[in-house]
Structures are given as structure tokens and as C-alpha cells.
Design a protein that fits this description.
The chain has 435 residues and is of the alpha+beta class. The protein folds into 2 domains: 1-42 and 77-115 and 172-248 and 379-435, FAD/NAD(P)-binding domain (3-Layer(bba) Sandwich); 120-147 and 250-376. Helix content is 26%, strand content 25%. The chain has 10 helices and 22 strands. The chain has helices at residues 18-29, 49-56, 94-98, 105-114, 127-138, 174-183, 228-238, 295-304, 343-362, 416-431; strands spanning 2-14, 34-37, 63-65, 71-73, 88-89, 118-119, 144-145, 147-148, 187-189, 192-200, 203-211, 214-225, 246-248, 253-259, 277-281, 286-290, 317-324, 329-332, 337-338, 366-370, 374-375, 399-401. The strands form 5 sheets. Strands 1, 2, 9, 10, 11, 12 and 22 form a 7-stranded mixed beta sheet that branches. The protein has a 6-stranded antiparallel beta sheet with strand order 7-15-16-17-14-20. Strands 3-4-21 form a 3-stranded mixed beta sheet, with no helix packed on it. Strand 15 (277-281) and strand 16 form a beta hairpin. It is globular, with a radius of gyration of 21 Å. It starts with a strand and ends with a helix. The chain binds flavin-adenine dinucleotide. Flavin-adenine dinucleotide binds at residues 14-20, 37-40, 73-74, 76-77, 80-82, 84-88, 193-194, 226-229, 231, 235, 275, 376-377, 403-404, 414-416, 419.
């Protein structure tokens, strides 16, 4: 039986990843009464593999295994997937959004002043990333340091915990924006799994959620769905507001790895901030970057690729990420999610893996092998111009979507900065919108 909430809000935001946290923060800063409902836990991040696994490796919750044995990952926790991401910031493709009448530049200009966003200082670029950068540049590739959402003064050389949830406050995560929203009066309910939208007289009026084993209703003037590229279309389907299962992109990745024997003795490698630098072929939808991962993850990749002989080589293995812009396809089902590579996707991988091999060989690496593909950017499942309009509103008045779902086309970029900009823009739009 459901208990109606006595609280009433201007806006309910479902999910606290970059999209949700940004819109909630902007609304709260403008004086709106905001409730944030988050399925995951608000326990402090401790940077352990165990905590990360609970957020992102439980099958059907944070991890989805497709028919072709590839893995898709998201994090169910306060701050969403930003808690475990690699902290790389990339500017949104302006033309893609301009085609829908969306100018993200004003929001981006504000965010640039608000976020810790810059390339890592040389002192924080690990020995493996530096070795890869040197080899790529020797091949005349345009290999540049990438913008990171990291506070260098709190970041430690020789640490990899940004990947499992930085416990030192060095990495920016959407939790920072959630905290700020709360300081401006927003209410946070963690461990609240929203199960459906409430719609009355054709208008969104709230949500129903499972909280501590009880069903509870929350009501508001409007609802912003920000449950991510998988969670949001699922919630629309569960509420009978989406006619068929959504298709999506996932920006699949392969890690290309090879060992060297001559890393500096004082710093053998294997523990560094990933994606310190890289290069992209944006017309072709291919991007490369250094990708040093914690030992357990490296070993999982080596095992999956059948390279038992490389299991003990983690601290000597240079690793390059090849990420491609995949076609939109597959299905977000209510219990499972599935997507397989198309021939065009495979061609991109073949080309990117070839470039990565060339860099590793130039760096003097041997025993080069590639992992199976995996993915971490589900999105494009409720696209602008399809399921939402340029103001991110669905066909149901009062119901908005603000997360990676709304990205209007195949993507291939780190999405976080774009989602923060979309959230800020929506927050401003709703703050000035009395309806
Ligand atoms: C390993 C890895 C590395 C990455 N590296 C980068 C990077 O370097 N740069 C970059 O820009 N991006 C990176 N990403 C991707 C990026 O973090 C995500 O694209 C981004 O977080 C998506 O934001 P979102 O708001 O759409 O969804 P999410 O961040 O997934 O947030 C969705 C939120 O909704 C909650 N939720 C879901 N369902 C419900 C429900 N029913 N009820 C209540 N709450 C719900 C979830 O718990 C979560 O908090 C990486 C991702 C991974 C996995």
C-alpha cells in the first residue's frame, strides 16, 4: 500500500548523476523547493574495489552483460556514474545542439568558472601516460593533455582511486552539486528507488518510490527524470509513457595493452589517473587515451582476452583506450539491456586498435593484445527531437528528462560536462517558468 507524502515540492528530481545534480543545484540556488530522490546509497566514498563493485558490478543493477559477452557499466549511488568515472571533461559539440535550438555556451561559461577543470599538472601525469604521450607524439599524432575535473592540490601521484570513488575530495563528482543543492534547501532522499511517474489529467504530478521496503508517493509541480540512459527510459516504460523499448548508444571501448621492461625503478607504474592525455579523430568517431587501470580490472581484462600469460604484468603494462562512436541500436528492456556491435562499429575499432598498436610498439611495448569491448556511456535513449523537445520536456506536460538519455545523436565523447550544461540550462529555464 502506498503512503502519500505530506511534503509538496516545486520539482522532484529523480537521480543524482551529473544531469540530475546540475538541474537540482540550479533550481535550489534560484529558490525553488526541490526534492532529489536517489536509488543508491549516500555512504561516503572510500575508494575500495568492494564499494565500487556494490555500486557498479552487481549484474542487472550496475552491470549489464550483453549477448556478445560485452559489459555495460553504470553506478547506482549518490552522484551516479560520476563517482567512478575517469574525470575527463570535453566540450559539447555545439552544432549538434544548435540544430535543436539549444545554445549551451552560456551555461558552459558559468560552469568553467565553477568547476575545477584543467589538464593535470605534469607532476600528476603518471609514468605510463607520459610514456604513451611521448610515443604518440613521436608518431606526429596530436596527442594532448585532456581537461580533468580534478583538484590537483588534493590529488596524489601514485594513486588510482579516482576510478573506484576518490575518498580524498580530489575528483569532482555530482555529489559536490548535490551538497550545494542541499545547502540551498533542497531535500535529498537516498535509497529511494522510483518505480513510476504519477500522472493526473495528463500532467506529471509526482512519483512513486520504494523507500525502506515501503511504497511512498512524492508530489510536485513538475518532475525531472535524471535516472541515466538506462534508468530514465525504463521509468517511462514502467509508467506507460514510452510506446516501445528504447534504443541507445554506449560509446564502446577496447583497451589495447603491451608490456615494457624499462619503467623507472622508483615508480614502476600501474597506479595513476587514467585519461591524462589523448587524441581524437572526431569526424571518424574514434578517440584514444592512456588508460592505466587498477590491477584487479587489468587482470579481469587479461583473463577475458584469454591472456593468462599477462596476468602478472600489470605494473609493466601500458594500456591505451580506444573508444568509438557507435550507432544507436539495441534495446533497454525492463530487466535486461542488450546491444551488439554493427559492422561500422567494428571498422572503427579495427582502425583505432591499429593506431594504438602503433603507439605501443613505438613505446617499445611487447606482447600487445586487445581486451574485449565494454561500455560506460549509455545514452541517446530519449533523444531531443524524438522523445523530448528542445526544452527537455516529454509529451507529458510537467515531465522533463535531463541526463544522457536526451543526447540527440550518436556520441563518442565524455558526456559529463554536456550533462552539467544541460542541467544548468534546464534549471534556469524552469526557474523562470511559472507553469
Ligand atoms: C568507468 C567509467 C569511466 C567514465 N569516464 C568518464 C569521463 O572520464 N568523462 C565523462 O564525461 N564521462 C565518463 N563516464 C560516463 C559518465 O560518468 C556518465 O555518462 C554520466 O555520469 C551520466 O550521467 P547521467 O546523469 O546521465 O546518469 P548517471 O550518472 O548514471 O546517474 C543516474 C542516477 O540515477 C539513479 N537512478 C537510476 N534509476 C533510478 C530510480 N529508478 N530511482 C531513483 N534513482 C535512480 C542512479 O543511482 C544514478 O545516481 C564514465 C563512466 C564510467 C562507467
Amino acid at each position: 500500500m502506498s503512503t502519500p507524502s505530506r511534503s509538496s515540492f516545486d520539482t522532484i528530481v529523480v537521480g543524482t548523476g551529473p544531469g540530475g545534480a546540475s538541474v537540482a543545484r540550479e533550481l535550489a540556488r534560484n529558490g525553488a523547493k526541490v526534492a532529489m530522490l536517489e536509488q543508491g546509497s549516500a555512504a561516503p566514498l572510500n575508494g575500495t574495489l568492494g564499494q565500487m563493485a556494490a555500486m557498479a558490478a552487481v549484474p542487472g543493477k550496475g552491470a549489464f552483460i550483453h549477448r556478445d559477452a560485452s559489459l555495460l557499466v553504470r553506478a547506482i549511488t549518490l552522484g551516479g556514474t560520476s563517482t567512478i568515472n575517469f574525470a575527463t571533461a570535453a566540450a559539447p559539440p555545439a552544432a549538434m545542439f544548435a540544430a535543436h535550438g539549444i545554445d549551451l555556451e552560456p551555461a558552459l561559461a558559468e560552469l568553467r568558472a565553477e568547476l575545477p577543470m584543467a589538464p593535470l599538472p605534469d607532476a600528476l601525469v603518471g609514468p605510463m601516460a607520459a610514456r604513451i604521450m611521448e610515443a604518440a607524439r613521436a608518431l606526429s599524432l596530436d596527442w594532448r593533455k585532456l581537461d580533468k575535473l580534478i583538484r590537483p592540490e588534493a590529488c596524489r601521484r601514485g594513486c588510482w582511486r579516482c576510478v573506484t570513488g576518490c575518498p580524498f575530495g580530489a575528483k569532482w563528482t555530482a555529489r559536490d552539486f548535490v551538497d550545494e543543492a542541499c545547502r540551498h534547501g533542497a531535500v535529498l532522499q537516498a535509497d529511494a528507488r522510483v518505480t513510476r511517474m504519477l500522472v493526473e489529467d495528463g500532467r506529471a504530478v509526482g512519483v512513486e518510490a520504494q523507500v525502506g521496503g515501503a511504497t511512498r508517493q512524492w508530489r510536485a509541480g513538475r518532475v525531472v527524470l535524471a535516472a541515466g540512459g538506462i534508468g530514465s527510459p525504463r521509468l517511462l516504460r514502467a509508467s506507460q509513457l514510452l510506446a516501445r523499448p528504447a534504443a541507445f548508444f554506449s560509446d564502446p571501448v577496447v583497451a589495447v595493452m603491451g608490456s615494457v621492461d624499462d619503467l623507472p625503478d622508483d615508480e614502476p607504474g600501474g597506479a595513476e589517473v587514467p585519461m591524462a592525455a589523448g587524441a581524437s579523430w572526431s569526424e571518424d568517431g574514434i578517440a584514444l587515451a592512456d588508460l592505466t587501470l587498477p590491477q584487479a580490472m587489468y587482470q579481469a581484462f587479461a583473463l577475458q582476452a584469454g591472456r593468462v600469460d599477462r596476468l602478472l604484468a600489470h605494473r609493466r603494462t601500458l594500456s591505451i583506450m580506444v573508444k568509438i562512436r557507435d550507432e544507436i541500436g539495441g534495446r533497454v528492456g525492463q530487466r535486461w539491456v542488450d546491444k551488439t556491435l554493427q559492422p561500422a562499429d567494428r571498422e572503427k575499432f579495427d582502425r583505432g586498435i591499429g593506431i594504438a598498436r602503433g603507439i605501443l610498439e613505438r613505446a617499445g611495448a611487447r606482447h600487445v593484445f586487445a581486451s574485449h569491448h565494454f561500455a560506460a556511456h549509455p545514452g541517446g535513449s530519449l533523444r531531443i527531437g524524438d522523445q523530448v523537445d528542445g526544452g527537455l520536456q516529454t509529451a507529458t506536460p510537467g515531465l522533463y528528462v535531463c541526463d544522457a538519455s536526451v543526447i540527440p545523436q550518436p556520441w563518442g565523447l565524455p558526456p559529463t560536462l554536456t550533462l552539467l550544461a544541460l542541467g544548468k540550462r534546464l534549471g534556469k529555464q524552469l526557474s523562470g517558468d511559472a507553469s
